[in-house]
Amino acid sequence: xxxxxxxxxxxxxxxxEEGLRREKLILAPVFGNQQPGTFIPVYHVHGYLPQEGDxxxxxxxxxxxxxxxxxxxxxxxxxxxxxxxxRSVCFFIGLSMTDPNLRRLLDIANDNQSNNPSLDIxxxxxxxxxxxxxxxxxxxxxEFCDKIEDMLRGLGVAVVWYKDYPDLPKLLDSMIA
Length: 177
Known about the structure:
By secondary structure, this protein is of the alpha/beta class. It has 7 helices and 6 strands; from the N terminus they run βαββααβαβααβα. Strands 1-3-2 form a 3-stranded parallel beta sheet, with helices on both faces. The chain starts with 6 loop residues before the first strand and ends with a helix.
């Protein structure tokens, strides 16, 4: 059984920490170029705004701010994401996987892995089929979902389709057990 080594979140709230603390995990939010210590780091790559306390952090909200990070290949947030993608099995939950920076980083990680076949790292994107193919039905919806699977497979990501959000805990348990 694999253990949790880090969490990368694109949300700036601290709800993920709140949930993981209930599981008795010792966490450290990381929202800038700092070291998390001996705790499980929760990287807030778009900034951090906890429910309580006053923590200075740059929150990424505008398209301009997002593009500024995208342009900086060695920004701490890009580096941390790339390290995770190259060294760990990553689960992408609650993302559409359409973020161009995320796909760029996955492409780099996948290229590096292709150059080193001894690395056996896979990533998984948990996607809701109805949301992914929103507005499409029948054969068109299936074909669209197949194209998404092919595109993500090319980036080293396998798609795990789910129907309803309550299905996610069971799916995750079956994969990490």
